[in-house]
Design a protein that fits this description.
Blueprint: H1 9-16, H2 22-32, H3 46-57, H4 73-84, E1 91-92, E2 96-97, E3 101-103, E4 106-116, E5 127-132, E6 135-136, H5 145-152, E7 173-181, H6 198-250, H7 258-265, E8 267-271, E9 274-277, E10 280-290, E11 298-302, E12 312-314, E13 319-321, E14 326-330, E15 339-346, E16 358-362, E17 369-370, E18 373-374, H8 385-400, H9 411-423
Length: 424
């Protein structure tokens, strides 16, 4: 305050300090019982203490992250891919970046990344990757605030095993935590572990909880998808045999079973078999509307950015983001039992596998998708008006039918319409 060149206390608070607006400065001065016009250097002793208490109690604007160096969502996901090497996890949690906070007058932020399943060992403690200002912390894991935050979180609520609800969880998971600050509180001069700090501990817990909620959602979805996939496989295996026997008994040709599957399943199925031969690598995608209403859907694929330039699409996508390795299509309107097909191919010996391609669908509730994921909420994507209107109409129809999502459908007419659409 003595070194400030501002003429008044009000200007000092609002211009020399970050996060203090003009309105907040007036409230602080009033709470401390000071004069707004008083020179900053004249505020001493008890006046300073009252002003400091008022600052602690005030709700101020979050500090600017300009002085910090976060890893960022893209590099977190790409870095986890490189760390895992040949291992192919089944789920990459959307990286979590907490808002900038303050500890001891210094801004800081916490980032969390998490992967689950696939080739990760299920009978060992989850691996923890600790970073401070982008530098990996390789030693003194047990003395680090990051490890303590992971160990004190009850991971049983989120789908991982944890004896007694404390300690490092057991399961096929890898957790990355990064603390970025202009002054990271380390436990020693060696800078091998982050020291305990109430503000940092709180942000670490909140970041881990946000990532853990994504994990819990994934495990729940996976359980539902596995059940639906098993049901779908059984129906496709049993119904044709049943129809064949019945047709033989009544002496009539075997009927198309698609309307029956639609009535039973009520899903949109995305089948994306992956083929490799001397001519190249291909993914033949078939989207079938096994729901009782027409759908307008947006289909997305995410490809490793280094393989994206080699991809050949048929038909051509409606939009691409080469930097992120994404392409998307607005599918033609799919009537009940209707299908849409597209092909994605790569040159021979391209280093890409089925697990490298992530398929997402927008325009339908996640409980009605099989073979793909709903579009992640952190994707900044503006859906076409036709997709949004169709989804809103489907939701309105479901609400009109008691919220069950079921409605009476003329399956014979739907079947004829589907065949007509295929012929066109």
């Amino acid at each position: 305050m003595k070194s400030s060149k501002k003429p008044s206390l009000a200007e000092f608070l609002s211009k020399d300090l970050q996060g203090v607006s003009l309105r907040a400065s007036k409230e602080l001065i009033a709470a401390a019982g000071l004069k707004p016009s008083a020179p900053p250097g004249s505020v001493v002793g008890d006046d300073q203490e009252r002003l400091l208490r008022a600052l602690h109690d005030a709700s101020l604007i979050a500090p600017s992250p300009e002085g910090l160096s976060p890893i960022g969502a893209m590099l977190i996901k790409r870095g986890l891919r490189n760390v895992l090497g040949e291992l192919r996890p089944e789920f990459y949690c959307p990286p979590v970046s907490r808002p900038t906070k303050v500890h001891g007058g210094f801004p800081f932020m916490v980032e969390v990344g998490l992967v689950y399943g696939g080739g990760l060992p299920a009978d060992q403690p989850a691996q923890i990757l600790r970073f401070a200002n982008r530098v990996p912390l390789l030693f003194q894991q047990g003395a680090c605030a990051i490890t303590n935050a992971v160990a004190t979180l009850d991971w049983r609520r989120y789908g991982l095993d944890q004896k007694g609800g404390a300690g490092i969880p057991t399961g096929p998971a890898l957790i990355l935590v990064h603390v970025a600050s202009t002054k990271v509180p380390f436990t020693s001069e060696a800078k091998e572990a982050v020291a305990e700090d109430p503000e940092i501990d709180k942000e670490l817990t909140l970041g881990l909880q946000a990532a853990a909620r994504h994990l819990r959602t994934h495990i729940s979805r996976k359980s539902r998808r596995d059940f639906a996939s098993e049901k779908f496989a059984i129906i496709q295996r049993i119904l044709p045999k049943l129809a064949e026997k019945t047709s033989g008994l009544v002496g009539k040709p075997m009927p198309d079973l698609t309307p029956v599957i639609t009535r039973i399943m009520d899903i949109v199925n995305v089948d994306s078999p992956f083929e490799s031969d001397p001519k190249g690598v291909r993914a033949k995608v078939e989207v079938t509307n096994f729901t009782p209403r027409s759908r307008v859907l947006e289909l997305f694929v995410e490809i490793p950015p280094d393989a994206f330039p080699l991809a050949v699409f048929h038909p051509a996508p409606d939009g691409v983001d080469a930097e992120l390795g994404r392409a998307w299509w607005t599918l033609p309107k799919l009537v009940p039992n209707g299908r849409a097909n597209l092909t994605l191919s790569f040159p021979p010996k391209t280093d890409v596998e089925a697990n490298d391609l992530d398929w997402y669908v927008a325009g339908i509730d996640e409980s009605h998708i099989l073979g793909a994921e709903p579009l992640p909420g952190d994707w900044d994507v503006r859906l076409p008006r036709t997709v949004v209107e169709a989804a809103e109409q489907a939701a309105a129809d479901a609400a009109a039918n008691g919220g069950t999502g079921e409605e009476e459908v003329d399956y014979d007419a739907a079947e004829a319409s589907a065949h007509a659409s295929e012929e066109e």
